[in-house]
């Protein structure tokens, strides 16, 4: 399972242009709230995730017998395109979930309900601040709220670290490169690799923010022309070109299983290592990412959930979104997630340790990451820019461009798509 907020790339630009026509549409006539209603919920993810959210939908139905909510799976591969097509045609689901910033893009085109109109901005007090900010439009509109959270961790082989005389995993950039050197000297052929975000903007995100940089200024201007951005990319490039991080993506548990000592991977990896890689049992552990010069910032992913403006059941849909933050909804989701050995972290930081599907020790690592975490930028054009930004970052790693040129070209893409 992989969580990302990136859009599907330049192939969607024509659809995006067409979607602009959705703004300015007359409000959809609303159905009688007392009449029986069936709402469709297009959920981005896998079928197991659809099942856990259907549990919450069924619980809502028990409390509201006139309301039935049917959850339908959209795969990450084509969800953005399908949701954008629905937004363009103003037909489709009542409730959607997808990348954290997607609802901003759809909302700017008139396809989403501003949830503030129904009081859902009150949920801000329960959400992780940076994730809430990521889902909020620059003008303050709330077209979606966080549905769940995901992040990264540093997974490591305790036996291989011991072989190199390391009694703890690295806690800083300098300690990371020093540990790689010691592991190499001890005969460990594969000291370090990255999984989620390898060679794309999510991987760079961690180093950028750990160096004190950002993708955008507070007023949504590209901010990659800074010493912090250059320092972050220089360090990231060196991990590949000088310290041996592989450019080929290897799933984190596979990397650990085949002898990689230190692996950056998504939180969901923790659920399956002991089950899928039984030979690793007792030989691995996890911690937060090494901190950079500005601190220990880690990327926060996840999905946003919102209500379409063409739904005839906007009030009911927003009430269901509010319900998804309730203790009983979270408990139902977590119970089903545990049955399916599925990773799930609720959008409420106060629930991470006692109400996620991870063990308490694993959840505490993620809780520490969330405290200082940052989420994807919610600036105009980011989802359309992300794939090309990744390509320019890759050009520095692969030796096709110097660091300054790669960052300048990425910034041009961001400025162009900002409109």
Automatic annotation (TrEMBL):
KW Zinc-finger (keyword) present: no
Pfam family, one: SBP_bac_1
InterPro entries, per the entry: Bact_solute-bd_prot1, SBP
Keywords of the record: Signal
Record-linked Gene3D superfamilies: Periplasmic binding protein-like II
Signal peptide (residue range): 1-26
Name assigned to this protein: Extracellular solute-binding protein
High-level lineage: Bacteria, Bacillati, Actinomycetota, Actinomycetes, Streptosporangiales
């Amino acid at each position: 399972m992989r969580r990302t907020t990136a859009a599907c790339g330049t192939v969607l630009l024509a659809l995006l242009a067409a979607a602009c026509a959705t703004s300015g549409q007359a409000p959809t006539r609303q159905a009688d709230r007392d009449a029986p209603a069936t709402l469709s919920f297009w959920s981005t993810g896998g079928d197991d995730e659809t099942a856990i959210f259907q549990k919450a939908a069924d619980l809502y139905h028990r409390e509201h017998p006139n309301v039935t909510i049917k959850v339908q799976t959209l795969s990450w591969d084509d969800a953005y395109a399908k949701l954008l097509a629905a937004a363009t045609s103003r037909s489709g689901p009542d409730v959607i979930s997808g990348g954290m910033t997607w609802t901003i893009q759809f909302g700017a085109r008139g396809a989403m309900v501003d949830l503030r109109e129904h009081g859902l901005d009150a949920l801000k007090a329960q959400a992780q601040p940076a994730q809430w900010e990521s889902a909020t439009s620059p003008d303050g509109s709330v077209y979606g709220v966080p549905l769940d959270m995901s992040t990264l961790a540093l997974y490591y082989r305790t036996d291989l670290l011991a072989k190199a005389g390391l009694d703890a995993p690295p806690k800083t950039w300098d300690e990371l490169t020093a540990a790689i050197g010691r592991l190499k000297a001890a005969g460990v052929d594969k000291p370090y690799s990255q999984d989620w975000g390898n060679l794309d903007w999510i991987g760079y995100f961690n180093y950028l923010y750990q160096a004190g940089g950002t993708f955008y200024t507070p007023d949504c201007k590209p901010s990659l022309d800074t010493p912090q951005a250059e320092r972050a990319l220089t360090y990231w490039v060196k991990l590949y070109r000088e310290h041996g991080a592989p450019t080929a993506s290897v799933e984190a548990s596979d990397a650990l299983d085949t002898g990689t000592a230190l692996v950056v991977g998504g939180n969901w990896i923790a659920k399956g290592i002991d089950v899928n890689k039984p030979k690793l049992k007792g030989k691995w552990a996890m911690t937060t990412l090494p901190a950079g010069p500005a601190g220990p910032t880690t990327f926060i992913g996840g999905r946003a959930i919102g209500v379409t403006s063409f739904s005839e059941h906007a009030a009911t849909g927003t009430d269901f979104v509010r319900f998804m933050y309730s203790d009983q909804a979270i408990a139902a989701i977590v119970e089903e997630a545990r049955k399916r050995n599925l990773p799930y972290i609720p959008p409420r930081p106060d629930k991470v340790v006692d109400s996620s599907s991870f063990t308490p020790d694993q959840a505490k690592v993620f809780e520490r990451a969330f405290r200082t975490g940052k989420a994807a930028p919610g600036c105009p054009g980011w989802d359309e820019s992300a794939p090309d930004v990744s390509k320019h970052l890759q050009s520095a790693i692969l030796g096709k461009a110097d660091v300054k040129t790669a960052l300048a070209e990425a910034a041009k893409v961001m400025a162009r798509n900002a409109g």
